[in-house]
Amino acid sequence: MVHFLTATSTALIASAASDDGSFHPPGLEEFFPPGIFFLDTPFEMNRIVLVRLLAVAVLLLLFYLGLRRARRVPGRSQALAEMAVEFVKTNFADDVLGEKVGRRYMPLLTGTFFGILAMNLTGIVPLLNIASTSIFIMPLVFALAVYVAFIYAGIKQHGGFSFFRNQLFLPGVPWPMHIILAPVELINVFLVRPLSLSLRLMLNMLVGHLLMVLCFSATNYFFVTGEDLGVLSIFGVVTLGAGVVMTLFEFVVAILQAYVFTLLTAVYIQQSVSEEH
Amino acid sequence: MDPVTFAQLTGNINTIGYGLAAIGPGIGVGIVAGKTVEAMARQPEMAGQLRVTMFLGIAFAELLGLIGVALFFIG
Fold first, then answer.
1. Residue B63 and residue A259: Cβ atoms within 8 Å?
2. Domain containing A205: what range?
3. Residue of A207, A211, A255, A257 to mutate for B, most B C-beta atoms under 10 A
């Protein structure tokens, strides 16, 4: 704990000392802060990892508090938790997968949706201020879980051979076209899907964070550190307003990206289990 | 600055490249959303299913714009 506090205060002092009055645009070094725990081991933790753990802890705590004494007639907190799970069930499991298949993949869909949502929302929580999904590895972990799930779903439904045949050879295509189409489908299904899932989430959160930091550091420059600005420091009002708008926008994007990720998960599983797509 | 040069630009040309790259996905997302609104107005009872398809279409169109952002940082 002491180590953590020292590291934080050192970082604060360092950032204050580097304010030499000029404007610093944000860069990628934002996403690679210095390590705090287990330095120089493979388990080195920086503050983004801690934010991630905090998000998971808060998520688990909320669901535990909501569902610890589950009753047939729900109380207020249980009703909220049930509403959250019900949202995933109606939107993804029932609508896309159907009642029967949907029930089997509910844990995966619920975990994906709320895990990503919690980790996205840390981007707009004051003092945390970083979306824990904005480092590539975290979306990749979610995407790999989805990857395993939709291949497992397809093999379980059809057996190994006919799953790959269904995925690679599209129905209703004249057979010479398969020479071109099968490799394209192979790359699309087994390479582009997990990569695009994780890249979309990570880049959305990264860009949102950079835009927010740009607005607020410009405000800081106009109001606090900038010298010889005179009347021009009025622009700080504009950048502050833009920063507030960007924060609201980030809130919407956090929910939307969790929604899109889970929706695509459900669609991929559905395409694996369906007879022909 | 030597006397022949009247004006000079500094900075990274990637910024212009990303601006150009964002046009395509922008048009794409606009078409997807606009057509969905049209379809919802024609058949309000299909709104739920249309919304799902709209988000799927937007997700794919938007990915191109986001890949542009990544190249912007790499270059």
1. no
2. 26-273
3. A207
Q: What is the DSSP letter of A44?
A: -
The answer to the question of residue A60 being in a domain is yes
Tokens 């919690």 map to which residue? A118
What is the 3-state secondary structure of A212-255? Answer: HHHHHHHHHHHHHHCCCCHHHHHHHHHHHHHHHHHHHHHHHHHH
Reading phi first (left if > 0) and then psi (alpha if -120 to 50, else beta), residue A43 is in alpha
pTM for this predicted structure = 0.84
Task: Using the predicted structure, report yes or no on whether residue B28 has a pLDDT greater than 90.
Answer: yes
Which of B52, B58, B62, B64 to probe by mutation at the A interface, max A CB count within 10 Å?
Answer: B52
Residue A123 lies in a domain: yes
Q: Is residue A19 part of a domain?
A: no
Subunit contact A263:B56, Cβ cutoff 8 A: yes
Residue A254 and residue A117 in contact, taking contact as beta carbons nearer than 8 Å:
yes
Predicted ipTM of the assembly: 0.72
Are B52 and A95 in contact by the 8 Å Cβ rule? The answer is yes
